[in-house]
Amino acid sequence: MADTRYQPRVQTGSRAEIDQGLRSYMLGVYNYMALGVAVTAIITMAVASNPAAIAAVYSLKWIFFIGILGLGFFAPRLIFSGNTAMAHGAFWTYVGLWGLAIAPMVGTYLAIDSSIVYQAFLISAATFGATSLAGYVTKRDLSGLGAFFMMASIGIIIAMLVNVFFFQSTMMSLITSIVTVLLFAGVTAYETQMIKEMYVEGDAAGVAKGKSIFGAFALYGSFITLFVHILNILGIMRSE
Questions:
Q1: Is 236 within 8 Å of 229 (Cβ atoms)?
Q2: 183-199 mean pLDDT
Q3: How far apart are CA 207 and CA 3, in angstroms?
Q4: Looking at the predicted structure, is the pLDDT value of residue 78 above 50?
Q5: For residue 178, with 0-12 CB atoms within 10 Å meaning exposed, 13-18 middle and 19 or more buried, which class applies?
Q6: At what angle do helices 170-198 and 205-239 cross, to 10 degrees?
Q7: What pLDDT was estimated at residue 15?
Q8: Nearest 5°: phi and psi at 145?
């Protein structure tokens, strides 16, 4: 999660104009995000349907992992650089990396029981929709939770790496995924409110576009994280 570096400014338009502008702005954010999820699905399914492609992608899994982490921290700077092409490049590179990174996992579960993948997607969509709506309508200020969510996310990443390299425990993987789902449900609400508060009526076109892409980038990452860990939970539960 990135510092938006935007300070609240006085809205100069009428309440109706601001509300209409905000709805259009948020719709743009969700449209970008939904398109990103669709592109990820296309990439993932294309790779998952080809055993040779899965093997090639799996051999590069750590490169994708590092790339996703790197973009997660540095892409916001590129998105807010004022260069629309660079902003799109950062977002779509992130989308592509995720599509490749999760392909082996999705392919494995499609081969075992394809219904698990579709169930995970539907549960993720419902969870994301409910928590994003909560973040949009709540009157409670969630900005103070940003530092906690950042530190908790780092802790989760460390826990996953420790389990992969040392313990390789199915139970620890299950617990980590449950905690991650709970954490990113909160992160989704926090990000939605943050994105909403970033809206300023009368923003320059380039600034508004950067905010929309950044919002899509943040929410997309949360949705995919929810999907991956809900899929892991369902997969572990099925195997036991």
A1: no
A2: 96
A3: 15
A4: yes
A5: middle
A6: 160
A7: 60
A8: -85, -10
48 by DSSP, 3-state: which? helix
pLDDT tens for 87-138 read 999 999 999 999 999 999 999 999 999 999 999 999 999 999 999 999 999 9
**Are the C-beta atoms of 71 and 91 separated by less than 8 Å?**
no
**Cα dihedral across residues 98, 26, 182, 72: positive or negative:** positive
Contact 78, 204 (CB under 8 A): no
Q: What angle do CA 10, 195, 228 make, to 5 degrees?
A: 175
203-222 tens-digit pLDDT:
777 788 889 999 999 999 99
Q: What are the domain boundaries of the chain?
A: 15-239
Radius of gyration, alpha carbons of the chain: 18
For residue 18 the two structure tokens come to: 């601001």
Please name the residues in contact with 207: beta carbons below 8 A apart, sequence gap of 6 or more.
82
